[in-house]
Design a protein that fits this description.
Structural class: alpha+beta
CATH architecture of the largest domain: Roll
CATH topology of the largest domain: Dipeptide-binding Protein, domain 3
Number of domains: 4
Number of helices: 16
Radius of gyration: 25 Å
Number of strands: 20
Helix content: 25-40%
Shape: globular
Oligomer: single chain
Strand order of the largest sheet: 13-18-14-17-15-16
CATH class of the largest domain: Alpha Beta
Strand content: 15-25%
Length: about 525
């Protein structure tokens, strides 16, 4: 009897999808081992290795490839799809589906693509595929998706030949290659044929894996290797992802052997995991935690730079890093962190100096103190409530009363993106430069450029805008370092600490390779 490995539960309705099914069947047949025993042919499936991983978020909300940035250490879209480029956490632009990007003028780029790449349904990846994806993201139909914003500077795009794309921008945009580090490249013809919703149920990409079954009811995606991928997996043929909502549940899953690797653990769990033989890896998250202090209301005490600086002097950020975060991170005092373009090594975080804080408050007319309301997002970071309680305690010591109002995700998102803070004087926010590994992204969030801007210093805008047209790397880096110093001095936020990703893995796994912030599962091996 012929026994084939179990095929996926995804319904294949189109010609392209049927072709994909046939190709998978052929590959399954190719993996069958035939053994002659007593004159009979016994056909046995060859079993590959399975990686059991914990992921975060809600798979239903993240089904669409353009609905959010491909973030998180374990992310299905980073396994299914590829990008033109990747940005490493030392700031290097690495090759993906593209081999190079060269400016041919201030507003024109030529991108050379990787040859011999195919989607998992067999269709070749070509320049036309890139053109179709960009044109879709620029269309009104894609306007609701977060990633569409990354194409706003693009005026036109055309295929020069099968492996060459020419892009014209409205204004000089030196960050264009890094913007492509946020855009996945799904199979555009099938996307167009099926529509966003149906395609999301059965996505087709060029990546290392294909979806066998999203298993939405159980929140447990099941992916199998795409052996024809240009970056086919070296060890793991199956990735079984469990969506685990909280760090204690992840710890339990690790210790019981249900998963091999997880991330976003609370720092309080590190000692427990290490004592049980699990390997802990901390990676820079590319973000700085802070409380944004709005200056748009001239009646607000935060319209005065001295008050904003006073709050920074009043909080013991080193204690937060050493005690609450257990030494896994460092205090912050500027938009970026080491390794980012524009990080200024000469800037030091505001020191803990309550006397200086009181002096500045008195100079600003608040010698008797002041009070304000802070609305903070506490979901997702286990230590957040303790951190904000510490902030409130330190501020109280200099006569500043901070009322903490916790927010859930959707309400925080609405307030942050609209700028409508209601009764709040401050809101939790991050200086987020992770996607580009370039501080301009974080600086623009705390500037007049942000939609619903909460902090605006018009005098900085000409310099901020000019950095996008600086193709001289040294000149641009120095300009960004100067802007980082300006942001430090202006103190548009109460800077706190750098965010780190905490990853824990069983000793079953070898060294953990990464591609940007994602675990590069295609390169992952078992421990030898």
């Amino acid at each position: 009897m012929l026994a084939l490995p179990l095929m996926g539960k995804v319904k294949h309705k189109t010609r392209e999808q049927r072709r994909w099914t046939i190709d998978q069947l052929r590959r399954s047949l190719g993996r069958i081992a035939t053994v002659l025993v007593s004159g009979l042919f016994l056909v046995l499936p060859v079993q590959g290795e399975t990686l059991r991983a914990a992921g975060g978020g809600n798979i239903v909300a993240l089904l669409h490839p353009f609905s959010s940035l491909p973030q998180g250490v374990i992310n299905p879209h980073a396994m299914i799809h590829d990008m033109l480029f990747y940005v490493s956490t030392d700031g290097t632009l690495e090759q993906g589906l593209a081999l190079s990007a060269e400016p041919t003028s201030d507003t024109t780029w030529r991108i050379n693509l990787r040859p011999n790449v195919r989607y998992s349904n067999g269709r070749p990846f070509t320049a036309v595929a890139v053109v179709k994806t960009i044109e879709y993201l620029k269309s009104d139909a894609a306007g609701r998706y977060v990633i569409s914003a990354e194409t706003r500077s693009i005026k036109s795009v055309r295929a020069v030949d099968d492996l060459t794309v020419e892009i014209e921008t409205y204004v000089p945009d030196v960050l264009l290659p890094r913007r492509f580090g946020t855009i996945v490249m799904p199979e555009p013809w099938l996307y167009e044929e099926l529509g966003p919703d149906a395609f999301s149920q059965a996505p087709v990409g060029t990546g290392s894996y294909v979806v066998e079954d999203w298993r939405l009811d159980a929140q447990r995606p099941y992916l199998v290797a795409n052996p024809d991928s240009w970056r086919a997996p070296v060890e793991f043929d199956v990735v079984d992802i469990r969506i685990v909502k909280d760090p204690p549940s992840q710890v339990q899953a690790l210790m019981s052997g249900l998963i091999d690797v997880g991330y976003n653990f609370g720092v309080v769990e590190i000692d427990t995991l290490e004592s049980q033989g699990f390997r802990i890896v901390t990676k820079p998250g590319g973000q700085v935690t802070s409380l944004a202090l709005a200056n748009r209301d001239l009646e607000s005490p935060f319209a005065d730079q001295r008050v904003r600086q006073a709050l920074n002097y009043a909080v013991d950020k080193q204690a937060i890093a050493d005690i609450i975060m257990m030494g896994t991170t460092e205090p912050a005092g500027q938009p970026g962190l080491p390794g980012m373009t524009g990080y200024n090594p000469n800037i030091r975080p505001y020191p803990y100096d309550p006397n200086r804080a009181r002096q500045l408050l008195a100079e600003a007319g608040h010698s008797s103190g002041l009070s304000f309301r802070a609305e903070v997002l506490i979901t997702g970071v286990l230590e957040a409530p303790t951190m904000y309680q510490k902030v409130a305690q330190d501020l109280a010591a200099v006569g500043v009363a901070m009322e903490i109002n916790p927010l859930q995700g959707q309400e925080w998102i609405r307030k942050y993106f609209t700028g409508d803070w209601g009764k709040a004087d401050a809101i939790s926010a991050t200086w987020n430069a992770a996607s580009y590994w370039d501080v301009i992204r974080a600086i623009e969030i705390f500037s007049c450029k942000k939609t619903g801007a909460f902090f605006c210093e018009p005098g900085l805008m000409p310099t901020i805008d000019a950095t996008h047209g600086m193709f001289d790397a040294e000149e641009r880096s120095q300009t960004l370092q100067d802007l980082s110093q300006e942001m430090h001095d202006l103190a548009p936020s109460l800077f706190l600490v750098h965010i780190v990703d905490v990853i824990a893995a069983s000793n079953r796994l070898g060294e953990l390779p990464f591609r940007h912030k994602q675990l590069a599962i295609d390169k992952l091996r078992l421990a030898r």
